[in-house]
Design brief:
Layout (H helix, E strand, L loop, with lengths): L19 H16 L5 E2 L3 E4 L2 E4 L4 E4 L2 E9 L7 H28 L2 E4 L5 E4 L5 E9 L18 E5 H11 L2 H11 L9 H14 L7 H4 L20 H16 L7 H11 L7 H15 L9 E7 L5 E7 L5 H22 L5 E8 L9 E8 L6 H10 L7
Parallel strand pairs: 5-8, 8-9, 11-12
Antiparallel strand pairs: 1-4, 2-3, 4-5, 6-7, 10-11, 12-13
Helix pairs in contact: 1-3, 7-9
């Protein structure tokens, strides 16, 4: 409806005392870890090759079924000669794309053990992911109108300034959303430094687009919401407490001391939760805040929980709730049975064998200074119910009483 101004700050300052290239890599990792989640950021490792050893990228992002090889190239002492700087950018970007090709090829040939910024190790089989190549250029003053070629890339690729890498993570505050953006624009050449312009062109188009279709069978008894994939305002500009609530719940799950699952499962669960659309995070975060206050009014002699589910046309199926009972074996069983039933019902509509259902429950702590305990359950695959069992389950968990 009028003019809008968005100031894109310079790239975050580099840590003093580190070699320039290393400091640029560290700053790139930090931006993805602070505005995204450190669990999705994996440090470079070395792998044996025929001629010696090769570093597996300058970092790798893994979220869901998408993996991104990140190559960082820094210009420590730029000159005033535009031709020389253009030549440097072209040579380094081509080298970076070739290195990314080699990293993906190596990980597809033999799995490797990678460690994320949470300090946890994951066995990574390159054949399990859709790959992207992202080259991050750290240059304080690149020449204008430099369009770097992507011909060397063997996978969808993007080249951008570190300033613009920071911009995307600050704007979206979700690793899944940033990777989704990279997939959307990959392979389309762009003048270096124009990434925020491209972002807002797409955000404007999203704002004008008609809502996508969703199966009415999924929305029965619920509310249909539509919002642009790319927000105009940076995420959490408004409703910051609600956004923080989502991040706190994710951090609780990331830091949980024990799960009845592997680290790969934990990463998978976090990846599914990070699919929660940026535009809807405030709604879900505020629901959790309100639900915790509401269920606290009920005595512990009664059982009460409040849920809100998110079902997306892309197969997203998440639920967030708060209950008035501390975690117990009975509560765990109840949560599991509810998740399985909801998963079964959605699969009957979508028929998607790859769909995952993840439910997160906040409950009063048994002891200590924490405000709540966090429980999570993930269900995947087709569930076989006997008709009588299904009838009893539906009677126990009617949609009108639990989401």
């Amino acid at each position: 409806g009028g003019a809008m101004m968005r100031t894109v700050p310079s790239a975050s300052p580099l840590r003093p005392g580190e070699r320039y290239g290393t400091a640029a890599e560290t700053a790139t990792h930090d931006a993805a870890a602070v505005w995204g989640m450190p669990d999705f950021v994996f440090l470079p490792e070395t792998a044996d090759v025929g001629s010696g050893q090769r570093e597996l990228g300058d970092g790798i992002l893994i979220v869901g079924d998408v993996a991104v090889v990140v190559q960082v190239k820094g210009r420590e002492t730029p000159t005033d000669n535009d031709a020389r700087e253009r030549s440097w950018l072209e040579k380094r970007s081509k080298k970076a794309l070739k290195q990314a090709n080699g990293t993906i090829r190596k990980l597809r040939a033999a799995p490797a053990q990678l460690t994320n910024l949470r300090g946890r190790t994951l066995g990574v089989d390159g054949n399990a992911y859709r790959w992207l190549e992202v080259v991050v250029i750290d240059h304080p003053s690149p020449p204008d109108n430099v369009e770097l070629g992507l011909d060397e890339a063997q996978h969808p690729a993007v080249i951008l300034l570190r300033r613009d890498w920071d911009f995307l993570f600050d704007q979206l505050k979700s690793t899944h959303a940033v990777c989704q953006y990279f997939e959307r624009v990959a392979g389309e050449p762009l003048a270096l430094g124009d990434e925020p312009v491209r972002y807002y062109d797409l955000a404007g188009a999203d704002a004008q687009a008609a809502p996508g279709a969703i199966d009415p069978a999924l929305t029965a008894g619920g509310q249909t919401l539509s919002a642009p994939l790319l927000p105009m305002e940076p995420a959490a500009t408004r409703d910051r407490p609600a956004h923080q609530m989502i991040r706190l719940a994710l951090e609780e799950l990331a830091l949980a001391g024990s799960l009845d699952s592997t680290e790969a499962d934990r990463l998978h669960i976090l990846g599914e939760l990070d699919r929660l659309p940026v535009a809807h995070r405030a709604v879900i975060g505020q629901h959790l805040i309100d639900a915790m206050q509401e269920v606290a009014k009920y005595p512990r002699t009664e059982f009460m929980w409040h849920w809100k589910r998110v079902l997306g046309a892309d197969g997203t199926h998440l639920a967030f709730g708060a209950g008035n009972q501390p975690h117990s074996a009975d509560l765990e069983q109840a949560l599991g049975s509810l998740a399985q039933l909801r998963h079964h019902d959605v699969m009957q509509v979508t028929g998607d064998p790859e769909m995952k259902t993840v439910m997160v429950l906040l409950s009063p702590p048994k002891a200590g200074t924490k405000s709540w305990d966090t429980s999570v359950v993930m269900v995947s695959g087709e569930l076989a119910y006997e008709p009588e069992d299904l009838r009893r389950m539906r009677k126990l968990w009617p949609v009108s009483r639990a989401a």
